[in-house]
Amino acid sequence: MSLITGANGSGKSSVYRSLRLLADVAQNSVVASLAREGGLPSTFWAGPETIARSVRQGVHSVEGLAKNKVASLKLGFGGDTYGYSIDLGYPPPATTMFGLDPHVKRECIWHGPVYRKASALVDRRNNFVWLSTTRDEEPVMLTQHLSDTDSMLASIADPQRAPEMLAVREALRSWRFYDHFRTDSEAPARAAQIGTFTPVLHPDGSNLAAALQTILEIRSDEALATTIEDAFPGSRLYVEVQNGRFELQLQQHGLLRPLSAAELSDGTLRYLLWAAALLTPRPPELMVLNEPETSLHPDLLPALARLILAAAANTQIIVVSHSNVLIEKLTAAASCTRLHLLKSFGETTLEGATLFNTPKWSWPVR
Q1: What is the per-residue pLDDT for 42?
Q2: Of 13, 30, 268, 325, which residue is 20 to 30 A from 245 by alpha carbon distance?
Q3: Could you tell me if 43 and 114 lie in one domain?
Q4: Which residue has the higher pLDDT, 237 or 133?
Q5: Do 167 and 186 have their domain in common?
Q6: Cβ proximity of 116 and 362 under 8 Å
Q7: Is 220 found in the same domain as 83?
Q8: In sequence order, which ranges of the chain are alpha helices (DSSP H)?
Q9: Is the pLDDT assigned to residue 207 strictly greater than 60?
Q10: Would you give the distance in Å from CA 14 to the centre of its chain?
Q11: Is 122 in the same domain as 161?
Q12: How many domains does the chain have?
C-alpha cells in the first residue's frame, strides 16, 4: 500500500482528484468531472513555466512570462500487464459556446508498466483509433470518426480484435474512492434502507447495513466481528430487518439496549463505514482513501490502521492522511510505502526524489 502525506496545500488532494479523473475516463464522464473541478484551466500549473535560480534564492520575485508549452492534461497508469494514458487539451479555435470543453488528443494502451512505441497495443490520435502492428503489417483501423470528447475506452467495444481495451476499461471501473463519509443527522448511513445483497459499499454509505450483513454472511473468517472487537471491546454488531428494510444495531459493553445507526456517534458510525468498505468480499484492483482519520478519536486510529493493512493484502490501497498517529501505525508495516509531498514556490515535489530513484515513465507524444 502507499501512504501520501504532506502539509496543507502540498498537493495531496490533487493526487486524489487526478486518480478520480482517470477512473472517470472509463465512464466517459471525464469532461463533466473536469467541469465540476473548475474546468481544464483549473488543472494547469498556476505558476511560471520555469523558475529561475535567482527567484528560488529570493533575489528576484516571481514574474509571469508568455507560455510556450501546449496546454495539456495527461493522466495515466502502468501495471504489470497493461498501461494506459490519455492526453487532454483545448479544441481548435471555433465559434462555439463549448470552447473550454477538453478534447482528447491522444490515448494509448501498451503492454507493461512503461510506454514504448514497440509495446503499444491500441493507439489513438484525435479521431483515429487503430491497433498497433508489426513494422511490415498495415495498421488495423478500429474507427476514424471517434468524437473529440469521447474516450476510446468507453466508446469502442471489440473484444476479438482489441481485448486489452475491455481489460483496461473494467480495471478502471473497478477502482473505488472513499472520501469524507457523511455522518450528520440526515446522513444516508443513519437511515434504514431496503436491503439487497451488497458486496460493495456505496461511496455515500447509503447501503451500510446491507454491506455489513453481506460481509457477515459471505466471509467465513469472522473478520467483521474481530474488527468490531478491536475497535469497541465487548461490542456486537448485527442487522435487524423489518418489511425488507435493514437497520444497523450495535450492542456496546455496559449498555442495556443496542444503539441504532441513528443514535451512534459520528466517530463510531464512520468507523463502521470504513469497516464495510475495507472488508468488502469483492476487493477491487485499487482503493483510494482520502483522510480516513476524519472525526475518529485517536484511540480508534490503531484499529483503523490494522484494518487498512489487512485489506491491503488483497488490493492495492492508497491512503491520503494528515494524522500522525495513523501515519506512524501504517509506516511501521513493511508493506507500506510513504510518499511525502513538499511544496516550494507553489511547486509540488516528492521528498527524497532524485534523478536516480524516480520511477521511469514515458508519455506518448501528440
Answers
A1: 81
A2: 268
A3: yes
A4: 237
A5: no
A6: yes
A7: no
A8: 12-25, 30-36, 53-56, 152-155, 163-174, 208-218, 223-231, 266-278, 301-311, 324-331
A9: yes
A10: 11
A11: yes
A12: 2
In a domain? residue 336: no
More confident residue, 9 or 163: 163
Which of 23, 328, 41 has the alpha carbon at shortest distance from 179?
A: 23
Instruction: Count Cβ atoms below 10 Å from residue 257 Cβ, excluding itself.
Output: 9
Q: How many helices (H) and strands (E) does the chain have?
A: 10, 16
341, 85, 354, 344: CA torsion to nearest 10: -40
Classify residue 70: in a domain, yes or no. yes
Per-residue pLDDT reduced to its tens digit, 270-285: 999 999 999 999 999 9
The pLDDT assigned to 336 comes to 96
98 within a domain of the structure (yes/no):
yes
Specify the pLDDT at position 139. Answer: 76
Contact status, residue 212 vs residue 201, Cβ threshold 8 Å: no
Which residues make beta-bridge pairs with 286? 316
The mean pLDDT value for 10-28 works out to 91
Q: Position of cell 472525526? A: 295
Tens of pLDDT along 80-135? 999 999 999 988 877 677 777 889 999 999 999 999 988 999 999 999 999 987 66
If asked whether residues 63 and 124 sit together in one domain, one would say yes
Evaluate whether residue 335 is within a structural domain: no
pLDDT in tens, 36-60: 877 888 887 665 556 655 555 555 5
Instruction: List phi, psi (to 5°) of 95.
Output: -85, 80
Q: Which of 250, 298, 301 is nearest to 274 (CA)?
A: 301
Q: Which of 243, 265, 287 is the last residue of a domain?
A: 265
For residue 128, the enclosing domain spans 27-172
Q: Which amino acid is at 353?
A: A
